[in-house]
Specification:
Layout: E1 2-8, H1 12-26, E2 32-35, H2 40-46, H3 52-59, E3 63-68, H4 84-93, E4 98-104, H5 117-120, E5 124-130, E6 140-144, E7 150-154, H6 160-175, E8 180-185, H7 191-204, E9 211-216, H8 217-226, E10 233-236, H9 238-252, E11 259-267, E12 272-278, H10 295-307, H11 312-327, H12 341-350
Helix pairs in contact: 1-10, 1-12, 6-7, 8-9, 10-11, 11-12
The protein binds adenosine-5'-triphosphate (ATP) and magnesium ion.
């Protein structure tokens, strides 16, 4: 099994290094690592934020562990040469269509949430967001109307098979969790959403062990704040998922703890090909200072073990070690603590049972 490691810019290399120490400690004999440049560092070395060799390394792997991209010295470059383009390029070139974002409030960290502690404490959910369709990729344009007013439009559209494949990802994720899936749409007004709902219901027949419910997106936004503990897995389209996943992140609060996965269609020997990254960026303000919290990247590694390598037990071991460190008040600056990157890595390593 091969993992491409794209550490990238800013705090990317620091947080990725700690995740790799955790991986090393798991002593998985079959795992091989391939390192490649991405983002600003790749631009400076090779003239492009996503060099062909990096893309090839990602393609030839079972999974990609990604740090972060972003480099203030690249701000003046043409758009296609900016570091952020690398992650967009990877998503499209690798056919990553499902974005998974867990949101969980760890015991003792209820105060980091924007919500009341007793409400926040119950948060343990996963948002599965479709990434390749919806208004972002529909026909779009602007024009001038006869009376001189300007008009703009973006078509929202989903094809049946696009909904089907994201639904399968979500049902499978629910099977590995509490077995509850809530599909979020706006089927009372949108045709796209009616199709979405119909297809999700059809797919549900293959997952009798998962309890499916439906919710309109406006209500879901409200429920995420009112009673987020009710959700296990949420599946939704690109636009609604974009908004709800950021909302869920703020319900958790701590940017240094949030992991993500973007899964593709290709299967690996033991799972699904995917790219795994913390949701935070390159954080140039603290880069190189040893202050970044590596837990989000370590938790992203856990997702990699689960979804791409089929190593559920190892994934849980890593997640338990992070939870144990947090329970022992090993907190980074993002959580009001004083522990640095390396100290947090050490603390997680010590707790890997
Ligand atoms: P980018 O442009 O790459 O997204 P950014 O400056 O927007 O970079 P973010 O990563 O989005 O940075 O972070 C926003 C704030 O949160 C920054 O002040 C950053 O220092 C802080 N932060 C981000 N990640 C971490 C982390 N892992 N540990 C501690 N603080 C973090
Ligand atoms: Mg940012």
């Amino acid at each position: 099994m091969r993992i491409a490691v794209l550490a990238g810019d800013g705090i990317g290399p620091e947080v990725t290094a700690e995740a790799l120490r955790v991986l090393d400690a798991l002593a998985l004999p079959q795992v091989e690592l391939v390192h490649a440049d991405v983002g600003g560092v790749a631009y400076h070395r090779h003239g492009h934020p996503l060099p062909a060799a990096t893309l090839a390394a990602a393609r030839d792997s079972d999974a990609v562990l990604f740090g972060a991209v972003g480099d203030p010295t690249c701000d003046a470059l043409e758009r296609h040469l900016r570091p952020e383009q690398a992650i967009l390029g990877l998503r499209s070139e690798l056919g990553l269509f499902a974005n998974l974002r867990p949101a969980k409030v760890f015991a003792g960290l209820e105060h980091t949430s924007a919500l009341k502690p007793e409400i926040a404490g119950a948060i343990d959910l996963l948002i599965v967001r479709e990434l390749n369709g919806d208004v972002y990729f529909g026909e779009k344009g602007t024009r001038k109307l006869a009376d001189g007013r300007r008009q703009g439009w973006d078509m929202m559209s989903y094809a049946e098979d696009e909904v089907e494949r994201i639904a399968h990802v979500a049902f499978r994720a629910a099977q590995g969790r509490q077995g509850r899936l809530c599909s979020v749409d706006k089927a009372n007004v949108l045709e796209t959403s009616q199709l979405w709902r119909d297809v999700v219901i059809e797919v549900a027949a293959q997952y009798p062990d998962v309890a499916l419910s439906h919710m309109y997106v406006d209500n879901a936004a409200m429920q995420l704040v009112r009673q987020p503990g009710q959700f296990d897995v949420i599946v939704t389209g690109n636009l609604f998922g974009d908004i709800l996943s950021d909302q869920a992140s703020m319900c958790v609060g701590s940017i240094g703890l949030l992991a993500s996965a973007s899964l593709g269609a290709r299967t690996t020997a033991h799972g699904t090909f995917g790219l795994y990254e913390p949701i935070h960026g390159s954080a140039p303000d603290i880069a190189g200072k040893g202050l970044a919290n590596p837990m989000a990247t370590i938790l992203s590694l856990a997702m990699l073990l689960r979804h791409s390598l089929g190593l559920e037990d190892h994934a849980r071991r890593v997640e338990r070690a992070v939870a144990a460190a947090l329970a022992d008040c090993i907190l980074g600056g993002d959580l009001g603590g004083t522990h640095g990157t390396r100290a947090i890595g050490d603390a997680v390593l010590e707790r890997l049972s």
